[in-house]
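Follow-up to my earlier ticket, as requested here are the two runs.
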Amino acid sequence: MEYIVIIVTCIIILICLKFVWDIKIKDIKKMKELGYNKNLNIITNKLPENTKICKNILKKLNNEKVKIEENNNSKTSFYFVLSDTILIANIKNTFTRVQTIAHECLHSIQNRKTLLFNFIFSNIYFGYFIIICILGILKINKNFENLNLFILIMFSFIYYAIRSYLEMDAMIKAKYLAEEYMQEENTLNNKEQKEILKYYEEINNIGIKLTNYILMLKCFLKVLIYSTILLIF
C-alpha cells in the first residue's frame, strides 16, 4: 500500500510542477526552432569560429589552462571536470553558440570540489539505482527494500540540489557573459547584438524552467520505477 502512495504522490508532484512552471510541449518546439533561426544565424556567422570564441571567453575569465576540443558528431557541448576540457558539439549552425560556449566556460570556473562531487555522486547515484532495481526484481534482500527506497529518495534530493545549482548558475550568467563578449568583440553592431540578446532571453525563459523540470523528472522517475518494481515483484 505504501508503494502505491509513493507512486501517486510522485505523479501528483510532477503534474503540479508542470502546471506551476508552465511547462508546455510547444515551448520546447519553439526553443528548438529559435536555436536554428536562419536570420539570427546569419548575424552570428560574422563572429569568429567556436574554438576562438571559447579561447577568448576563457581568457576573459582568467582560465586559459582549459583544453578545448570540437566534436561535430556530438549534439551536446559539455565541460569535463576530470580532464579539465570543454567539448564543443556541432553548434556551428545555431545562433545560440556564443551563449552555449559561455555556459561551458562558466562551468570551468565553478568550484572544482563541487564539480568533482557532482561527477562522482552522479555515477554512484545511477549505479545504486540500477543495483537496487536488480535486487528488487530478483527479490534479494527484501528486508532492506524500504531502506533502499529511503536512500534513493535522499540520493535524488542531493543529486538535484547539486546539479540544479551548477546548471542554474551557468545558465543565468551565460547570457551576460555572451553579451560582454559580443560588446568587446565589436563585430556586430548594437542593433544586431540587441536582436541576438533578445532571443537569448526568450530561450532562457523557457530553458531554465525546462532544465529544472527535467532534472526533477529524472529524480522522480527513479523513485517511481523502483517503487513500481517493489509493488509488482
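Run two:
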Amino acid sequence: MLNKWVWFLGVFLFFNSTMGWGQPQIVKPGVKRAVQKSISKAGQSRFSADKIEKILEARALRTQARQTENLKKGYPYLFNEDFPGVKITGWPFHKGLKGPYEDLPFWKDLSDQAKRNYFLAANNRAGALNLKAKQQAVKNIQENLPALWCDRIKFTPQPFEKLLADMIPPQAKYILLGEEHNESQIQVFLSKFFKEYQAKYPGRKLFLLTEFLPVSGKKTLLLQSMKVGDPAYAYIFNSASSNGMTVKGLEPRYVYEGGGILHIDPQWARNEDLAELWVTPEAIRVRNKAWISRIKELRKNNPDAVFMIYAGGSHLEYNAFASLSLQLPREETFVASLYADDPTNNEARDLLEELGEDKYPFYLEEVLSWKDASLRRIAGFDVRLLLSKQDYPFGKKRKK
C-alpha cells in the first residue's frame, strides 16, 4: 500500500516546496523539469518504507537549515515556540483521535517517525512565514508610531462593556474577541458585554464560538469538569448559554484531548527547550484552518447570525500569522483585544507597547482605538481594552 502513494507524496512535497501557504512563487522551468523527472522515476520504482522515512527526515533537516539562515538575519519578538524544533514526542497519538493531515492520501501509510518529520518540515516552512509576518508587522508599526499615538481616539469614561457594544458596527457578523489567557476579569467582562450587546440588538441570533471547547462532545459534562479546573471559563460559557446564546466549540479534538511536545533547537531555545506542539506556527495554521471550516459550516445554516469568536489573541489579530480575521469578510469583521490591567506586570502586552516604549506609552492607555481603519489593521485590532480585577471581580467578594 505504501508504494501506491509515493507519487502523491512526491507531488505534494514538490508543490509545498514551491508554493507558500496561499502565496504562489515563480519556479524556474529547469528546476520544475528536474523535480518532475525525479517524481516520475519515483512513481516507476518501488520505494521501501525506510526510503520514505529518509526522504522526510532529509526534508526536515533541510527546511530547518533554511530557517536557521533566516533567523540569523534577525528574529524580533519571537516566542520560544516560534523557533525550529529538532524532534517531537507525545505525537502521533493512538487513542482514536484524528490529527492534522488526515485528508492526505498517503498519510495513513506513514510511520510515526515519518509523520513527525513531516510536521517538523511543515513547521519550519510555517515558521519562515511567521517570521516574515512578524517582521512586516514590526516595520508597519515602526513607520506609523507617531500617527498611532497622536491619532488615537480619546474616550469619555464609561463601562467598557457599553463602550465595546457601541463601537462594533451594526453590520459586523464576526466579532473576534482575542484574550490574554487565564485572567478571570476577562471572562467577567465578557459576560457583561454579551448582555449589553443583546440589549442593543435584541432580535439577533448570537453564537459564541470558542477554542476552549471541542467541536463535538457532551457540553454539559465538559462544563462540569471545567468548573473544577477553569471555573472562570465555565462561568462565561454557562452564562452565555443561560442568556440565549448558542455555544459551540471550534477546537479539533486532537488538540483538545491530545498533547505533544516540540523539542526546540538548542541554539535558539531560551529559558525552556520544550514547547507545546499545538502552539507552534504550523499548529496555529492547521488549527485556524480547521476553525474556518467549522465557521463556514455553521454559517450555511445561520446566514444572519452574529458569530462571536472567542480565543487567544494570536489566532485573531490582523497582524498575526495565519490570522482568522484575514480569512473572514473584511467589512463584517471586528477585532477586540482583551488584556489584564495588572500594574505589577512590566512585560509588554503587544508589539505596540514593545515598540512604543516610553516615547509612545501605549501601556498607559486603558482603551486604544483609531478612526482610521488602516491604523487599526497595523495595530492588529479595532479596539484594545485593559481590564482590571477591581472592575470585573470573579466570584463573590468576601466580607471583612
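The only thing I checked on run two: Confidence is low (pLDDT under 50) at residues 17-46. Let me know what else you need.
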